[in-house]
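Give me the fold.
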Amino acid sequence: MSTPPKTPPHLPQRQDPKSTSLDRPPDQRLLCPAQHLCSPISLPTPKSPKKPKIQMAGEIFPTDWSPPPVEFLNQKALQTQWVGAAGPQGRKRLPKELEQKPLDLDSKQGMTSLEELFWNMASPSQQPGTPKKGSHTDTSGSSENYVNSLDYLLQEKREQALDQKWEKLLQRDRPDPDSSNSENSEVHLMPEQRILVEKFSVSLKAIPPVHPGETVFLPRRHPLPCVLDSSHLKPHSHLEELFLSSPPDQQLGFLHSGLLSNLYLHASDCPVPLLQWLFQLLTWPPETSSRAFGLLWDLSVDGLFCQSDEDMRLWCPSLEQLAEAFHSLGAPRPDPCAPGPSQLSGSMAENKISLSCREQEDAPQEVALDISLSYIYKFLMLCVLMRPGSFSDQSLLQLMELLCRAGLDVGLRLLPKTDLQQLLLLLLEGVCDWPGKLQPLCSALSRVSNHHHNLLALVQFFPNVTARGRELRSQLSLVVITRMLGQQDALPLWREKTPLTLLGQLLSRMRPSSLRQHLHAELLPSGPTRQQQQAGAELDHKVCYLCHSLLMLAGVVVSSRDITPDQGGELQLLCMQLDRHINTHIRESPQAMHRTKLKDLATQMYIRWQELLTHCQPQAQYFSPWKST
């Protein structure tokens, strides 16, 4: 009986140096790049008599691994030849010159850097440089074909710069549609095309939500010099004598360091020239004005607590000093301005003062102006509250006119005016002869500006929270409406008992057709038809803008009055006139969006007045059997 042949034990196969990675199993195929990466000099050559060692499939690193020598930092041109000799899918091989000649460890030409070996072991799509045409690349990833080389990035940068250059040239050569020679560009349009474009074109003009403002404060690069008049002051200590005898720039150092608080705070009597000097410093840049306001406020309040109720004294700036402070902020100098000691000394010492106010460049001009005005308003509120009779009625009227003019500055249009509104309410309550001063006050405030939108903003400076504030808003709105319509002498403004009846007469003159006739100064030119159309569109925009402001003022008149049940008929008549004279005379058009905004305002006012009409109607009286006869 024959015995079965013995099966020889299974031994691991030796690696064939001539075999490719495609002839190997997948697990061994992944080990080849690791061998080349870790030991580039252990690659067997065909002429080497030494047999390659057997390597198990589970080994990651070869057993004969050794760190590369120092010469691997020298980069040679070997990378290009090695990359060209590598197959598209097989394992990377050495060039023929290196296969015939063994590698010399001491030769610099036989070494490459780890970075070059890494790129050689990588796939062709990851190698630096552009792959050759016809080479097979792996398209499994969407970002593998991106070549991230320095030359490619520089080329991309040059292309972007060239594109930007061409874009600037095209924008420079592009004609401006708003320029005067725009008619030449429209010559190529046919008549029917031009009619179609004009039919569906939309005008960019609209009614602005913010008033244009007035140029009240001019920007100043340096503040006006402020000099302390210490000629009549007697020092009580060596430190006070040093402060009074110091130059103006060193006196500002006393203020910034806080030594003035130690000198005059909690003192029995604070010198008035010092308070005047601190008030003048409120017009300086924020770093100086903030310290001056803090010390001025503390000294004033501390003086009130130290004095008795019978002998309460508080220094308040006069109207001339307030006008001078506004002039320091950039406003024009008022005419009735008597020069005081500080002004004369200030003009003499202007060359001696080194203006140490470099912080003015830190804050914008509008913000610094608003901060200085806020300090002035707050100190005036303290003066009016603590000393109600510090200003006469005529001075109060002039002060309110000065404050309202300052509030209309162009740089202050978008900033809140809470301090100004509170101060104006206090000044209104301080007028003793209120019924007699209402008419001159409204006449003076209506001449602050010539623009209707600025006057509307001026009316809104007075909040609708007190009885005098509501009355002033109503009467001032009527005065502004009659002035804009040129009806100051035609209508009995101050002899009319009910302002609603007068407003009904003014609504008939607010229609756009009447306003167009009122603006007779805007005559249409007798030139080409194109210019006449542009002038007509400009006039139509001005008419709607004026009508919008007048309607807003009319709404202020109605909302400022307490509508009683016996005035329901007048309010109902106002609603009818608003719908008859305004709504029906506005023709909307896609080429004039300002008409749509005007009609929306008229519709909203009509709805609001109808709601007021429903609330002011008398309630019906019902019979109650329990009511005593």
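The longest helix spans residues 529-559.
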